[in-house]
TrEMBL record:
It holds the Pfam family FGGY_C. The gene is glpK. It catalyses: glycerol + ATP = sn-glycerol 3-phosphate + ADP + H(+). ATP binds at T12, T13, S14, T266, G310, Q314, G411. The keyword Nucleotide-binding applies. Belongs to the FGGY kinase family. Residues 6-251 form the Carbohydrate kinase FGGY N-terminal domain. PANTHER family: GLYCEROL KINASE, SUGAR KINASE. InterPro entries: ATPase_NBD (IPR043129), Carb_kinase_FGGY (IPR000577), FGGY_C (IPR018485), FGGY_N (IPR018484), Glycerol_kin (IPR005999). GO terms for molecular function: glycerol kinase activity. Glycerol binds at R82, E83, Y134, D244, Q245. This is Glycerol kinase.
């Protein structure tokens, strides 16, 4: 009798396999990091073969650590970094190029050219998304146009496109020997090729980006059995797929309209469930699919996507050497009392929500002879909290709903200083659940629901409990002064990249 569910969490920096029990508690996990490839400024790639090798390895390691056989798994769920675009050969299974990662800005010019004719919001009504190099469509167009022979192969049906979920499912189910070519509706909603109304590929969007339909996967439900694994062990049902931010919303059990979470990882992604109808954004957010369960109406979400948060901590570590490990940032930031007037705007890939400025670039401002490493570390942490406030304010405007508190998760939520500052700058409590691996948990939930391991959404809600809550402590005057300083710094980051014509 299966008594566990496995989740593959293929993130921007690492791949995890986590085995959960019926209460959503972790039985075992395994994790491997993969290389971040930066061939030029603004370009970010991953090697799809490395990602598949790591997935294969962590699944075996995780299961062994849990002391389970594959038959003990009721299902496997998949969650993944979204938007990252892959193209591979159907016959050989070989990638035609490295994956173009969501942060990659090489298609800025293509996107700007499309925006000249109709503006940045010309595809919002259909796809819910502004024009930005962040989404997959322009990345796929780049692969089709720049990789030798790719377009011809795609038109003949010999090249397959997918986000990371598609690549994993295809390999898990046999690869060139009959692998399934599918993606789930949440991942499809991030390509800028899917209609939010029909939940299918949109002919107009395919035309705008010159994408042949034959290259695209079939769109499936987020929770629903789509096949069985053949690798790395056979016979386990694949019961669900969710893009990682939607998975965290599901794992935080935000099933009712108005419930929201913020995930603090490489970037930050705040999502609010808005119910069975898409809510158009006028405040700079993205409208996206939250999840679909077989036989039920879809749930939509408003999302505030922030490109760089935890990645700024990595940058302090890897590029500046100010800290030796991410965890050291808290001590360094606590070595000073405040930010000393310093702000860091991490516009490394431009700025996403709510600004959507591809022409912005990163800056450190407010420097004086007084400023030291501690102030810079503190300003880096504060940048995450200010960016979060910007997107939550936009979310409240768009949805007309006020958030009483903020459910938080992700790797940065171990940072007590950040969580306290977040509560301070929002003037609302922040809280972290007991099971902090909400992304993997959401994928496990989607898969377990599809196979009857869990019966209802209510069963999942019963598993959720608060671990820690932070209450706002600073005065309104200080809050206003800090946030005003941030707004001025952001303005100065705009327009650094001059558009080439
Ligand atoms: N103590 C810490 N304080 C601040 N940031 C941290 C800390 N520990 C880890 N991080 C950051 O959290 C991120 C990892 O979080 P995770 O949720 O695993 O990200 P992802 O899923 O995007 O790969 C990294 O960018 C890392 O720099
Ligand atoms: O892999 P993460 O956690 O950095 O998430 C990446 C997002 O899905 C990008 O949209």
């Amino acid at each position: 009798m299966p008594d566990a569910v496995g989740a593959i969490d293929q993130g921007t920096t690492s791949t995890r396999f986590i085995v959960f029990d019926r209460h959503g508690a972790i039985l075992a996990q395994a994790q491997r990091e993969h290389e971040q490839i930066f061939p030029r400024p603004g370009w970010v790639e991953h090697d799809p073969r490395e990602i598949w090798r790591n997935t294969h390895a962590v699944m075996r390691e995780g299961l062994a650590r849990a002391g389970l056989t594959p038959q003990a798994l009721a299902a496997i769920g998949i969650t993944n970094q979204r938007e990252t675009a892959l193209l591979w050969d159907r016959r050989t299974g070989e990638p035609l190029h490295n994956a173009l990662v969501w942060q990659d800005t090489r298609t800025d010019r293509h996107v700007a050219a499309l925006a000249r004719d109709g503006g940045r919001d010309r595809f919002r009504a259909v796809t819910g998304l502004p024009l930005a190099s962040y989404f997959s469509a322009s990345k796929l167009a780049w692969l089709l146009d720049r990789v030798d022979g790719a377009r011809a192969k795609a038109e003949e049906g010999d090249a397959l496109f997918g986000t990371v979920d598609s690549w994993l499912v295809w390999n898990l189910t046999g690869g060139p020997q009959g692998g399934l070519h599918v993606t789930d509706v949440t991942n499809a909603s991030r390509t800028q090729l899917m209609s939010l109304a029909t939940l299918d590929w949109d002919e107009g969007m395919l035309g705008a980006f010159r994408i042949p339909r034959a290259v695209l996967p079939r769109i499936v439900c987020s929770s629903g059995v789509l096949g069985e694994t053949r690798e790395p062990f056979p016979g386990v049902p694949i019961g669900g797929i969710l893009g990682d931010q939607q998975a965290a919303l599901f794992g935080q059990t935000c099933f009712a309209a108005g419930e929201a979470k913020n995930t603090y990882g490489t970037g930050c992604f705040a999502l609010m469930n808005t119910g069975p109808q898409p809510v158009a954004s006028t405040a700079g957010l993205v409208t996206t699919v939250a999840y679909t369960c077989e036989g039920h109406a879809p749930a939509y979400a408003l999302e505030g996507s922030i490109a760089i948060t935890g990645a700024l901590v990595q940058w302090l570590r890897d590029n500046l050497g100010l800290i030796g490990a991410s965890s050291e940032i808290e001590g360094l930031a606590r070595s000073v009392e405040d930010n000393g007037g310093v702000y860091v705007v991490p516009a490394f890939s431009g700025l996403y929500a709510p600004h959507w400025r591809d022409d912005a670039r990163g800056l450190i401002i407010g420097l004086t002879r007084y400023a030291n490493r501690g102030h810079i570390a503190r300003a880096c942490l504060e940048a995450t909290a200010y960016q979060t406030r910007e997107v939550l304010e936009a979310m409240e405007r768009d949805s007309g709903m006020a958030l009483a508190e903020l459910r938080c998760d992700g790797g940065m939520t171990v940072n007590d200083l950040l969580m306290q500052f977040q509560a301070d700058i929002l003037d609302r409590p922040t809280l972290r659940p007991k099971i902090s691996e909400t992304t993997a948990l959401g994928a496990a939930y989607a898969a377990g629901l599809a196979t009857g391991f869990w019966k209802t959404l209510g069963d999942l809600r019963d598993n959720w409990a608060v671990d820690k809550r932070w209450h706002p402590r600073i005065a309104e005057e200080e809050r206003r002064a800090l946030f005003t300083g941030w707004g001025r710094a952001v303005e100065r980051s705009f327009g650094w990249i001059e558009e080439e014509t």
